[in-house]
Amino acid sequence: MASFDEMDVDTIWMDGEFVDWEDAQIHVLTHAMHYGTGIFEGARCYETEDGPALFRWPEHLDRLYNSAKPYEMEIDHTREELTEATMELIRRQDLASCYIRPLAFYGYESLGVSPGDCPTRTAIAVWPWGTYLGEDALENGIDVMVSSWRKHASSQIPTNAKTTGLYVNSMLAGEEARRNGYAEAIVLNKEGNVAEGPGENIFLVRDGELYTPGLAESILDGITRDTVITLARELGYTVHDGATISRGELHTADELFFTGSAAEVTPIKRVDNVEIGDGSRGPITEELQTRFFDVVERRTDDHEEWFTYP
């Protein structure tokens, strides 16, 4: 990812106002800075013949507001306000495609563990963001390792909320992988079964059928994950949603791939230096990946209901 200074973006929406990029600042004693009490989303806007198109935007907003519930966080802006703010950011910066980051967090007022009277702050940023895991990752796949860090259980912290503080777990797993020469990590849950990647859901292909861990395995209910399940079933594949996948099954899979708003559909070619299949993007992964990009880049009229146009 290029640094923000190299990107032609200059505006952020913050608490109902459009502000210059460098002025979107918070106090050092902001509650979320100390306790990770923020929630966020990651969505994409794709370039199409009809202009930029937000992909499954209502579902992302639903998850944002649902993420706020366990923390008793009141977002002081409606879905309509957040939608118009996002569209205006895209228009103002003349972006054909971009990544979208809505964020809500407890702000500056007091610094006990309880947020007390701390206000809820809300911001949205958009910027160009290409292939998340490398330029050739989509075609050639990536090498990953199983992290020594485990995913926390939903009985400890709500795993189906996109909470800023929880991504320390993701950062530790991902950086461990990169220090050891891998592009990304796979994280196991407390039982030792496969959960997900640091910022991705995972799919396993065996004997022509797809398997993916479910919510009981402490995963985030990914919107791209749901998209791929839908598309796979439309193509006639059997999808086992809620599968328990052991660590050993990773090595014997016919194919593996990640899904996510940033990662999109990324093949996995090796796990812990064990080659998956023939060590390249598998045929089912390739078919699903092609179908996914045909849909999101609007090379087909299918699933028009998934798109919102600024």
TrEMBL record:
Q: What is its EC number?
A: 2.6.1.42
Q: Which GO terms describe its biological process?
A: isoleucine biosynthetic process; L-leucine biosynthetic process; L-valine biosynthetic process
The UniProt entry, under InterPro entries, shows:
Aminotrans_IV, Aminotransferase-like, B_amino_transI, BCAT-like_C, BCAT-like_N, BCAT_family, Class-IV_PLP-Dep_Aminotrnsfr
List the catalysed reactions.
Answer: L-isoleucine + 2-oxoglutarate = (S)-3-methyl-2-oxopentanoate + L-glutamate; L-valine + 2-oxoglutarate = 3-methyl-2-oxobutanoate + L-glutamate; L-leucine + 2-oxoglutarate = 4-methyl-2-oxopentanoate + L-glutamate
Keyword Cell division in the entry? The reply is no
Which GO molecular-function terms appear in the entry?
A: L-isoleucine-2-oxoglutarate transaminase activity; L-leucine-2-oxoglutarate transaminase activity; L-valine-2-oxoglutarate transaminase activity
* Alphabetic keyword roster: Amino-acid biosynthesis, Aminotransferase, Branched-chain amino acid biosynthesis, Pyridoxal phosphate, Transferase
Superkingdom: Archaea
Q: Which cofactor does it need?
A: pyridoxal 5'-phosphate
Pathway, per Swiss-Prot/TrEMBL? Answer: Amino-acid biosynthesis; L-valine biosynthesis; L-valine from pyruvate: step 4/4; Amino-acid biosynthesis; L-leucine biosynthesis; L-leucine from 3-methyl-2-oxobutanoate: step 4/4; Amino-acid biosynthesis; L-isoleucine biosynthesis; L-isoleucine from 2-oxobutanoate: step 4/4
Report the function annotation for this chain. Acts on leucine, isoleucine and valine.
What family does the Swiss-Prot or TrEMBL record give for this protein?
A: Belongs to the class-IV pyridoxal-phosphate-dependent aminotransferase family.
Q: Which NCBIfam families match?
A: ilvE_I (TIGR01122), PRK06606.1 (NF005146)
What's this protein's name? Branched-chain-amino-acid aminotransferase
What's the source species for this entry? Answer: Halovivax ruber (strain DSM 18193 / JCM 13892 / XH-70)
